[in-house]
Amino acid sequence: MKTIRYALTATLLSAAAVSAHAVDQVKVWAAACANCHGTNGHAQPGMEALAGKDKDDLTQKLLDFKAGRKPATIMHQLTKGYSDDELRAIAAYFAAQKK
User: Fold this and answer.
1) What is the CATH number of the domain that holds 43?
2) Which residues are CB-neighbours of 38 under 8 A, at least 6 positions away?
3) Most buried one in 21, 39, 48, 60, CB count within 10 A?
4) Are 90 and 30 in contact (CB under 8 A)?
5) Which SS3 state, helix, strand or coil, does residue 93 take?
6) Number of domains in the chain
């Protein structure tokens, strides 16, 4: 019984560590957006704020930039550095931030 409990505890701790690392990685990706869109998506006047925006809308915009469907000065270049799943994670991160 103790062996099963130890195995379950180890599994849960491993899953928590992986999850925490994934969250940290998304924060690193999102930090690259801070120059234009502000820390955690809270932009200065004149720039587009991302915090609290709809996740699906943000995802679509990012994917459109990447595919060249949406005109941009720099976003089309930046988005090409991320996979579609990474862009979805970034969009979810900003959507989860408070306005």
Assistant:
1) 1.10.760.10
2) 44, 47, 49, 50, 51
3) 60
4) yes
5) helix
6) 1
